[in-house]
Amino acid sequence: MHNLDTLGQTALTACQELALLPTQTKNQALRAMALALRERKQDLLSANTLDLETGREMGLTESLLDRLKLNPHRVEAMATGLEEIARLPDPVGTVVRGWRHDNGIEIRQVRVPLGLIGVIYEARPNVTADAIGLCLKSGNGVMLKGGKEAEHSNQAISQLLQQAAYAQGIPTGCIQQVPGTDRAIVEQLITLRHLALVIPRGGAGLIKFVTENSTVPVLETGVGNCHIYIAASADPDQAQKIVLNAKVQRPSVCNACEKVLIHQSAVAQLPALVQVLQQSGVQVRGCERTVALVPSVIPATAADWDTEYLDLILAIKIVDSTPVAIDWINRYGTQHSEAILTGSYGEAQLFTQRVDAACVYVNASTRFTDGFEFGFGAEIGISTQKLHARGPVGLPELTTTKYILQGNGQIRP
Amino acid sequence: MHNLDTLGQTALTACQELALLPTQTKNQALRAMALALRERKQDLLSANTLDLETGREMGLTESLLDRLKLNPHRVEAMATGLEEIARLPDPVGTVVRGWRHDNGIEIRQVRVPLGLIGVIYEARPNVTADAIGLCLKSGNGVMLKGGKEAEHSNQAISQLLQQAAYAQGIPTGCIQQVPGTDRAIVEQLITLRHLALVIPRGGAGLIKFVTENSTVPVLETGVGNCHIYIAASADPDQAQKIVLNAKVQRPSVCNACEKVLIHQSAVAQLPALVQVLQQSGVQVRGCERTVALVPSVIPATAADWDTEYLDLILAIKIVDSTPVAIDWINRYGTQHSEAILTGSYGEAQLFTQRVDAACVYVNASTRFTDGFEFGFGAEIGISTQKLHARGPVGLPELTTTKYILQGNGQIRP
What we know:
7-stranded parallel beta sheet, 4-stranded parallel beta sheet, 14 helices, 2 domains, Aldehyde Dehydrogenase, Chain A, domain 2
């Protein structure tokens, strides 16, 4: 087993220099990295073929194999992603605020990098490029640990990007792809003293393991058991359009709708809603009352209510009142994205005030919880925790601040 | 042993209502609480006498007994502290930023309370009132666990403040003084699922125990092994004045200076500096070179360099260069407050860029790292971590944010 301590020390020393690099050096490196991806696309596809073959032998599902797969289009997307990061404003050096103390000391609060960030992720090899790009632009070193099924692809992408970055003046050692494929290496990483932060990107199992075992601060991202509550006064056509969009437009993502709550006096629209969902390939599950009303609905089990399907499945529950819907969401939701569809001003206000989540919607699809949709550009995930960052995590959230106090002899009276 | 789960659930339910209270209700409560402290001062002093008697029997040091002691002046300070918190702006409801999506969705990021906060503290009973006041004003519930030596005083203050708060419309149960005096109850508290955050206020031992064992996010406050580096070009008179102020003005606090680093070409001023410190009652320790130069200095041991004395002790080390001083500070410092005294523009820039700490000073005493000095008003401590909050932790840092998205039927294309 590798000893991550040496890698961690190397990365930490290197990223102390990275923290001070001018923006233009980082942007040049990002553009050179994009170019390298394009020029050596074939090497990446070959490495990916090895992973796909191993994956098929190991009996991975088609959906997992699809996530794992690289093709020219996906490599190009990684390259343009890095170029987009180069175009984003650099948060490092931003003066958040500043003022002068009565005694003349000039105080300013300045954004600085966090230091060394650990990123633990599964399946999709494009995360390797995204995470390296975002950490580099925000002046942070990064230690990456991808899933074992994508080992060859991740190593190939990482090697390529490291070479391109270091050739442009990024301090050697800032980017570390952690070798090894066992869980023990993950355990080492999440207790590594050099890390300022660890970000798990993946399923609920990975996130739970990291939050429970890490001694490094964790930025929890991604689990979204998102609800849409159809209130009594919701417009049925709009409700159908929004629920359909939030469920089927891209079912595998964390801001997709997983549950519909519907007020008991709005249930007349249920048969049509269920039909439209089923016609779009959605398996619809429901509470007893829903099943009684629409017999084609499959009875939901207790486990359904806190499951994030990430698939063409949706569960419906009929509720007696808006407060009941709010309590249900605060109990079973994952504080990601929650929506109310209503024509009532009072209900909209009640819902947005009382639902405890990163993003609370009125009369819109939950699918807008996204760095690009928010205008932040590329993001490293959606934070569902309350501390440090909540919602889409962009470049500023990958920094901290430092107060600089410039005096000329001041002492405290 | 008490089961904190029930207390936690009660507090969590109550603080969901507190989160929505208008500012004026919270301010009225804070002023009523101040009044109650004044009116029932005698009850508090009686409870405190019990703690002092037990403390003397248990052989507590005079300095600990002094921290434990309440007198009319200290009770009045608690009362005015609550009134000051009432005058601070309420962070809850502040719109941090807001904009409109291309598709017309109105997005705004709004400050909301964190939820339920755990505060674990030692000795000083005034922390009970400060912590309750700050949590209440920021819309958070609070579960307090004070040190066993102040058990009677803390319970008396807390009971009094709870009665006064609840009588003014603060939801009953928002404030919980955790009973019991053993470490097992602390262990329960720092793993309680209802808490959004735990704040340890006390010595390095308490903070280490909490950060290592908590499953709740921790806001680390307070350990300050602060350095002042006297560069070659520092003005000797100013250096003497600043070091003396940072060490002796109030030696028991976290922003007091604990170590002086001095450039080898500035050592001519050492004998006078040592003399002035010793005349002010400071025990001066030093590296071998310092002792060789000023024989009255006591040789420092390896343990000195990472010790926060919180006392009239200071250790001096002679260094060969500014980069060596910076590396030393980044290695032995606690990322609290670090200062350079210099006449050189380049050295000042190098130091402020490369020293990794919450507050980095040029030519001023480290004693200004403080919520009041920063103009933030009352603070719950100085954060020495990088995530969520760094530096003085005031009311805004006790909140999180929520995005509210108001649409009229938008779906994602």
